[in-house]
Design goal:
It is a single chain. It contains 5 helices and no strands. With 112 residues, the protein is mostly helical. It has one domain. The chain is rod-shaped.
Length: 112
């Protein structure tokens, strides 16, 4: 995920909500359906922060925002692990050479 998935300067600062920012971040991560509980938790936490005002907002941000960031980091780590697993499952050029060598007629002649 690119750190610039959510723009630093919103077009209309008054219209920006934490829920909208979390939704954009989740869309950029593109988690599978198996991460639905984690994405729902992130959205619920963002909604709870957006619904607070005044002193309650400051308290909610202080207590909940670090946890929300951890949830989003967990989503990104899961996505990174899936990407790494997909990359390692793909054959490398060395694998192709080994397979071609193993199937070569010259090798079969020597073995027989």
């Amino acid at each position: 995920m690119d750190l610039h998935a959510v723009p630093d300067e919103p077009e209309d600062p008054a219209a920006v909500t934490l829920v909208a920012a979390v939704d954009k971040t989740i869309a950029a991560i593109d988690p599978p359906a198996s991460d639905a509980a984690v994405t729902a938790l992130a959205r619920k936490m963002a909604s709870a922060i957006d619904d607070m005002h005044g002193e309650k907002l400051a308290l909610m941000i202080g207590q909940t925002a670090p946890q929300l960031l951890k949830v989003l980091q967990e989503l990104e780590q899961r996505a990174a692990k899936r990407r790494a697993a997909r990359r390692s499952a793909l054959p490398t050029p060395v694998d192709a050479i080994r397979a071609a060598h193993a199937a070569s007629p010259a090798k079969k002649k020597r073995a027989g």
